[in-house]
Amino acid sequence: MFERYKGGESALLVHVFFPQESDIEDLKEFEVLVSSAQIEILDIVTTSRKSPQAKYFIGEGKALEIADKVKELNASVILVNHTLTPTQERNLEQLCECRVVDRTGLILDIFAQRARTHEGKLQVELAQLQYLSTRLVRGWTHLERQKGGIGLRGPGETQLETDRRLIRHRIQLILSRLAKVEKQRNQNRQSRQKADLSTVSLVGYTNAGKSTLFNALTNADVYAADQLFATLDPTLRRIIVDDVGEVVLADTVGFIRHLPHDLVAAFKATLLETQEASLLLHVVDAADPNLLDNIQAVDEVLLEIDAHDIPTLLVMNKIDLMEGKQPSIDRDENGVPIRVWISAQNSLGLDLLFTALKERLAGKIQVCQLNLPIHLAKLRSRLYKLNAVEHEVINDDGSFLLNIRMPLIEWNRLCKQEPDLLYLINTQNNN
């Protein structure tokens, strides 16, 4: 049994072109993934096959070539841009005497680097343990069942069985903790629903500019960088939209092609913000030549988490990288906004995005005239804070005649919170 390398700073990349997946963009994206993990790329080995080989995935001849390359370049890890079975990983490691990590393992490593909150770290650890539980056999094939006899009797388990039992226990512990987090999120979500607050969730391919847009809309300081999976932990802020009122905006984890199902399941608590949204802002890197495939990849994940039926507004971001493209709104045959062209980095077209949000979220509008007595001056002040006063006349007796225009949702909420307002409306209607 060779000693497994613990490093991972210099890597040999392996990619197989299949007839149904001959797009070179997938390999370029893998290179960006590797760079995001802060790993040096020594060389890239490519090959073509009709189907994966059972033993090495890539074929025995190419596997021997990779083994020679590893020794020649002194690579510390082999990164394969595909999902390998545990047996294929073990066979490659034994042949090359070098650690082998597939695409899923690399994404998990990036997630482990990016997670900042307690919930994010739990979700990443859960995904890692679920991934590791099927791959323990690689490291423990040299340990046999413990022997019997005086002084040698043990639990009767191999080290592999012991590790699997400990991992199952740890997974159950993490699931129980995440259940508490999910319960808390549900309580917060129910509070927002009781307050009639609309939720808008940012979704999109990783590195499309969601966090940059989130910061531009909310004046927040969420971590944003030109790298894949810069955001793992959901962040919520409130924004004001004309004729709608307060809206909760949620920044979520980015999606990617071939996102492992276990990874989606691990981030269930985070993705619930997407499932419960009133509107999805699907942020797209408009300057990416592969944008149509990226949109399809996001749609597939939305289908997997049962969020495909939620109304969606496409936000075509990064138009500053497109020659001659100006901010604009695309509408359907009924005049409803379906696409907005903006640049979050340069704050271009954000006013158009707010306009589109208003049209997509605004419900009925309450328009009325109120005659407020002077002792209800605090209520007048609150109406001004809500931007609900269109015109005001001060009467001779000091009372205020106000022309009110505000979203019906905000109006109903205000009536619940201000009994004096409800009494005043009933009195004026009776008169």
UniProtKB/TrEMBL annotation:
Q: Which residues form the Hflx-type G domain?
A: 198-365
Cofactor(s) listed in the protein's UniProt record: Mg(2+)
- Which parts of the chain are coiled coil? none
The superkingdom listed in its UniProt entry is Bacteria
Check the record and name the Gene3D superfamilies matching this protein.
6.10.250.2860, GTPase HflX, N-terminal domain (3.40.50.11060), P-loop containing nucleotide triphosphate hydrolases (3.40.50.300)
GO function terms (MF aspect): GTP binding; GTPase activity; guanosine tetraphosphate binding; metal ion binding; ribosome binding
Entry keywords, A to Z: Cytoplasm, GTP-binding, Magnesium, Metal-binding, Nucleotide-binding
InterPro entries listed in its UniProt record: EFG_III/V, G_HFLX_dom, GTP-bd, GTP-bd_M, GTPase_HflX, GTPase_HflX_N, GTPase_HflX_N_sf, P-loop_NTPase
Q: Name one GO cellular component term.
A: cytoplasm
Location within or outside the cell: Cytoplasm
List residues binding Mg(2+): S211, T231
Task: Mention any Pfam family matching this sequence.
Answer: MMR_HSR1
Give the family this protein belongs to, as stated in its UniProt record: Belongs to the TRAFAC class OBG-HflX-like GTPase superfamily. HflX GTPase family.
Q: State what this protein does.
A: GTPase that associates with the 50S ribosomal subunit and may have a role during protein synthesis or ribosome biogenesis.
- Quaternary assembly: Monomer. Associates with the 50S ribosomal subunit.
The protein's matches in PANTHER family, at most eight in alphabetical order, are given as: GTP-BINDING PROTEIN 6-RELATED (PTHR10229:SF0), GTP-BINDING PROTEIN HFLX (PTHR10229)
Q: What is this protein called?
A: GTPase HflX
Taxonomic source organism? Gilliamella apis
Q: What is the lineage of its organism?
A: Bacteria, Pseudomonadati, Pseudomonadota, Gammaproteobacteria, Orbales
